[in-house]
Amino acid sequence: MYSFFICFILLIASYFVYGKFIERISGVDETRQTPAFRLQDGVDYIPMSTVKNFLVHFLNIAGLGPIFGAIQGALFGPVAFIWITLGTIFIGGVHDFFSGFMSMRNDGYTMPNIISKYMGTKIQKIMAVLIVITGILVSATFAKGAADLLTTLTDIPVLIWITVIFIYFLIATVFPVDKIIGKIYPIFGALLLLMAALMTGALILNPAYAIPEFTTQGLYLTDKSIFPYLFVTIACGAISGFHASQSPIVARCVENERDARPVFYGAMVLEGLVALCWAAIAMAFFHGQPQLAVIYGATPSVGVYEMAKTLVGPIGLVLTIIGVVICPITSGDTALRSSRITIADELNLNHEKIISRLKIAVPLFLVAFGLTFVDFSLIWRYFAWSQLIVATVVLYAASAYLKKIGKHYFIALLPAILCTFIAFGYILQAPEGLRLPSMIANIISIIATAIATVIFLKKHN
Fold this sequence. Notes:
- This protein is about 75% helix and about 0% strand.
- By secondary structure, it is mainly alpha-helical.
- It has a single domain (about 1-380), classed as Up-down Bundle (Amino acid/polyamine transporter I).
- The longest helix is centred in the C-terminal third of the chain and has 32 residues, at about 315-345.
């Protein structure tokens, strides 16, 4: 349990120490007018308060990510605590801060346009496609996870629930950001935090369960190696390129640049805390039991329900509905919203009228709806890898931005190099990748990462 608390404290402290350091070198200017005021349009550019932006962004980037990913990552044992903590502080927090801050500094640009400005136009279209694909995969994954649990609770066929969820997706995606997202999402974001806090408190106070330490033996319940599988399995709780696709949504609503740290870095730290809690809950609840191993290859929603029902009794059902149904649904619609905005920006389409937004959104919904019938674990792994690619490129862009303004660009470059190594290592040896032997895959990954680093340094020298 000490390991858990140490990591928990480190995450909180990082907001005040490392987050402040990043804020200082980024060049935050409190007197600079933000896009929320300069480009206010009543649809996507609308000023909102710091607290509202923080909770909206937290809910947008969280959803099922820090719950399902952390539960599956618990298979790797307490080493997951280290990855969540260090990943959040030095990789995810940096990525999220600069994806939001660079968007604010560039009229609320979506990531492809930011990548184009700092990395060149060649990679812009590739990034646009990846972000749209990531948004589609997120919406399909989150909708399927929520629908599975609703079917378990109600016996209503999963197809009906998926259809209902996607109807809501369409409405929320095309409506102005302050009509639905700005009004009710802060409430759901707060409820997601409450769920994690109650579950963790109930676990700690129950003598029947013990959170394992780093030295605990026998909790490694998967035959998959820690590298690279752990680093891809726990994505949203440590580093996720999906967050970069969500950042422009809130960057267009931030009232002052000083809000960048609490909204972007702060939301990532909070997500890391939620992931840390769920990893600890899963390790303690399923310790030594085969159920946890089964969860890795299936939808973990049933596991969440069992844990909530056991640990917090009757409240567990309500918490489960909130945490594993409502919250991922809200993340799913913002994922499609970001895809809609990205397509409109890339094609220079005017999407102020609702009919224009529908023309972009409907095809996205049809594709995402179709993907809900594909194996959940497969969609999750492809989502995890695709978002890692996005995150890697965004970190390189942040490095270029910092180098351009003469700041310590290594705080973004080093995480970018590590993510490059993980991304290559995973796709070269994963079952859904090239399936190379791990030794060969890792050697190739080192060489490829070195080449990518040299190319970046040479171009931005």
